[in-house]
Design goal:
Elements (H helix, E strand, L loop, with lengths): L1 H5 L1 H23 L14 E6 L4 E6 L4 E6 L11 E6 L2 E6 L4 E6 L4 E2 L5 E2 L5 E5 L2 E6 L4 E6 L20 E3 L5 E2 L1
Antiparallel strand pairs: 1-2, 2-3, 4-5, 5-6, 6-7, 6-8, 9-10, 10-11, 11-12, 12-13
Length: 177
């Protein structure tokens, strides 16, 4: 008991320090932290076309201006029929005039001409729900592939008309798988 009386202040300081450390540890372990915002690459970006200027462009809506403009490959044309299919960062540029569908690397800001496929103006192209699909009404065939809306499209091989279609509709009836 004599030891406790002689070192009363040191023991009290040690107990207080241990209690403070315990409370700080409990608070740190039970804390949920600060909310963070995960910004997507496609925030505010809408892809547009200009047949007059022969350009595909990314409109930065909050800034009210184009932050990227791309020409279709193949040189100047007398007229253009351009379109874009987009879901998030997954963007396909469609040059209906020359019958080409091209993936767009939105990170590097370039059209991937080495991955282009032939898609005529009479065909239908849609990007939605994580799927890119091409329908050829003349042959009743559909090609489709899964895509990640958070990533650029890097290849269109699965929807190339030379690939096996995922479905072929029989004339006037249902579909054949």
């Amino acid at each position: 008991m004599a030891f406790v009386r002689q070192h009363r202040s040191a023991i009290a300081a040690s107990v207080v320090a241990a209690l403070v450390a315990t409370v700080a540890t409990v608070l740190a372990l039970s804390s949920h932290g600060y909310q963070t915002r995960h910004v997507s690459l496609n925030d505010g970006g809408i892809w547009v076309t200009s047949d007059k200027d022969g350009l595909f462009g990314r409109l930065n809506k909050p800034a009210g201006s184009l932050d990227l403009a791309l020409n279709p490959s193949g040189g100047a044309q007398s007229s253009y029929a351009l379109d874009v299919r987009q879901q998030g960062a997954a963007v396909a540029a469609w040059d209906k005039g020359t019958g080409r569908l091209l993936p767009v690397n939105v990170t590097d800001g370039q059209v991937l001409t080495d991955q282009q496929i032939p898609v005529s103006e009479s065909e239908q192209v849609e990007v939605n729900g994580g799927t890119l699909a091409v329908l050829d009404p003349a042959t009743n065939r559909v090609w489709a592939t899964h895509l990640d809306p958070n990533l650029s499209i890097t290849s269109l091989a699965a929807v190339d008309p030379s690939a096996r279609p995922v479905i072929k509709f029989a004339a006037g009836t249902g579909a054949e798988a």
